[in-house]
What we know:
Radius of gyration: 18 Å
Oligomer: single chain
Amino acid sequence: MVQVSYVCPSLRQKTDPFRGDLAGRWEDASRHGCSYGEITAGFVGSVAEEEATGLPMHAMLTPGTIPSLYGEGNHLPGGMRYLLNTDYSFPHTDRFGKRHPAAALRWDDRVWLTDFVEMLVFISDHLGQPADAIVIHPGKAKEVTFSGIARAMRYIRDAYAAACTTVPAVLMQNGYPSLIETGDDIRDFWLTMQAQVPECCDTCGVLLDLSALDTAAHHAKSPSLHTSRPSPRMP
């Protein structure tokens, strides 16, 4: 029998412009039968976050700025399980009214990737327990390859596990617009994972965004929903 788990989404309220009130959201998650809570783990993405952290738009968070967004000493309730949903790579307007293009997700840049994982570790350290899963997004950088994303997922899994002593699931979420939009893209990416990082296929995979898949199919005027299921892993 297939086991289904539900995730309580992280919905930012107008009365709480930051990423806190984790205990309260976990109470809601438990009440609605959710097994996990989603915690935002993107870069600086709003004027309020710029002002609270002193960092520029799309900057990675530093240890000193994390309490200002997640709450000082706001450790998670015992038994809470969560996933870190990282940056979607959307454009934003900063506090000076300047429009910034989407943050570059440089999955093939090991220095950048090291800083990225360190930010996730800092967030988990502040929360007091490691994440069960980490969700990444492909971005739109044309020079990034499927192989580069697959290898980045392996590095994220291994580096985070080494720092937090827990091996997380690492999931790539399709999006629109992005490098992985259609059912064909998802299939090709999964085949790349099987070829490039077969040892990760039991803990890493694809988080399917049906709304993004539908948008991509509608935009292309050639629905590709029939190819949305990844090919089975070959023995």
